[in-house]
């Protein structure tokens, strides 16, 4: 086939994978999405990608960009037609430059997040984006889905952490907007249009990211609370007490902790069974005894104000890690209950408590006995609101209800002023849902933009929008 | 004329200004841009604006949105054709809602920045956007130009401070994306496309903005340094010393201070004549003596490291204000030297020193004797690099060199990886310059977007892009 021959001529045989060796690129890590492709192409440079896009325009071949293949909505997996190529950025994994004075780092799109974090630490700074898949997800994928994670409360999503990007647009032109500038008001922000566009407007090839001073120390503590209302009040109180020192405020339901303790040992003196737990992380520049005093004083006052049931404070960085492990083990621990129906949603923080109460009640009324696995980032109003099968149900029975459960939960999310995709994106999973909950005006403007920028619809077609 | 009759029918006579009373809307505050218009229209609601846009589409009348009319690039002033209307948002100045738990405030576009800051303070929080015109500029204008100001170092531009916006698009549809969400990855970020688009894609009508905890205290100190290289090194050192506590790091040249002291009294014990001064602000949650100790220790070490010449530390909030007054008086004080040729530029922080040295030399070689008025936000790499007339020149002689001086300075900015508009936007002033320094690919994509979203070219035509 002349298309494949032309790619090989362009990029070399070793950059083109076909046949059975494509498999790992054609299925996502949760094995929820499987597709096929003409080839998987592994470009080494932005020039390679520009040439490839030109070729794809000529042959009218769609391109599905893929980073670490850690997405949760199928955005990096091709459809079943076998007409597309997968463009994997795994060979573009260099750190291009660190500018310590400018507090910025420039990296290729295929660079794994952990590598960027480590490079920052090597010069005593931090790149604060942090999420469960950080050991394998790539910066390009993080940008394509505007990744969030656990430090958003203090540092923002990757959108807020990005100074500039380079991308290849749908015409096959390299657009170098790799600016290291903190202020640049010279026209429309193409950077922000591409961030979160999930490869549907072109391929992000490199980025310049912000680095931050490394806090002197971190302290983690766990508290238990009766109710989500208490959890939200505690969040407000802790913001006024610790101000910007709070870098995480994570929620875990009692059920999450029950499941996790089947996998790992709970910290010593772990609090008695409670309906809800919070992991709170303070990043500070104080000395050790000052911050311990400050946390003790905060906890005493919180008990006086009847905001918490109990608390334990980490006394070492090792114990910090143990506490984080609790939170990070939830996605694996919940598999114990079988495949769950997952919702990655956000609501205004002030609505969290009533949203969960009313949605739980409604879910139980319509689907009695199913289990609620609820955890997430209170400080961002972002909940992972997952539903596992009732004890009398089979996994199949639950999964066959997926669309009905989506309908119910997403309708409630909309009623409470929320978003049906807080941090995972739309991919293919939520294309239909988006048309229900995004306004007609917004969808129509998104389509105008997609058609103007990618008139041939070769950039990740069928993702986000069914154009 | 039937267009005017129809507007009056739609919005009421009292919402339409014609004739001589339009004057103050047709000229900017610096009296650099003057235009004419069919009418100035003062809508009260988003519905008014949507109806107005529909009418303007029907009659093919361009719309020039205007907030507080404090812009520096002529973006809110119509051209001389007299074909357009000015849409002033001054009657849309309500605070719609404050959600203290969600740390957000929702306001109409015509709300003056100071009013938003005050509303935040009333609930013991802050809205950190801060700039010289805060007493008269509006949130809508701030968003349209992605306003920066003095607190960007810690809190970011208004883009970073915005959760959601409502706008009326160029089809006359209200797009309500007034989300109060900190995480929302559901498709292209129309919010970020409209922020910084200077009214060329539609009219921003309301916004939901982030509020932050109010720091317990602020301390300002002034230091003098020999060179910009020292200033940048001091910035790096202070970031590692104070981490996120630094909320401003402002540069003033010796000449700026000389000019300012003709207007106001300098603080007592003000440092001797030096080539450069820095105003550093620390926002902290410590008690008074702790922060004084910390600043003293920082200054001692800075002297040891030969990073500073001298320093004075404010000892009261009154003295904080006096120190800020120095910095804020520069734009007025520089008028002493006549109308200047102003550059609002940014470069990577690591390039500030060599950029200024080389550009100063080049400017003196080509335009001998002109004066350099340099101040700005070191922490953002954002300099106000202004050129005033030589002692032997008339104001007219200098202004006639404007294009040559722009060429020289902007060429240097481009060579140092910078932006020709850091925080003021493009307006009409820099439309030509933008075509020289933005890549063809970026300009072409900006035009694609403008044409797709505003096919009739009725939204602030001629601003940013000459479509």
Automatic annotation (TrEMBL), chains A, B:
- Write out the GO biological process terms: respiratory electron transport chain
Against PROSITE patterns, the record matches this protein to:
FAD_PCMH (PS51387)
The answer, when asked if Repeat is one of the entry's keywords, is: no
InterPro entries per the UniProt record, alphabetical: FAD-bd_oxidored_4_C, FAD-bd_PCMH, FAD-bd_PCMH-like_sf, FAD-bd_PCMH_sub1, FAD-bd_PCMH_sub2, FAD-linked_Oxase-like_C, FAD-oxidored/transferase_4, Oxid_FAD_bind_N
Molecular-function GO term, any one: catalytic activity
Which cofactors are required for activity? FAD
Q: Give the FAD-binding PCMH-type domain ranges.
A: 33-214
What SUPFAM superfamilies does its record include? FAD-binding/transporter-associated domain-like (SSF56176), FAD-linked oxidases, C-terminal domain (SSF55103)
Keywords of the record:
FAD, Flavoprotein
Q: Which domain of life is it from?
A: Bacteria
Q: Which Pfam families match?
A: FAD-oxidase_C (PF02913), FAD_binding_4 (PF01565)
As for family, the record states:
Belongs to the FAD-binding oxidoreductase/transferase type 4 family.
Q: What is this protein called?
A: Glycolate oxidase, subunit GlcD
Organism placement in taxonomy: Bacteria, Pseudomonadati, Pseudomonadota, Betaproteobacteria, Candidatus Kinetoplastidibacterium
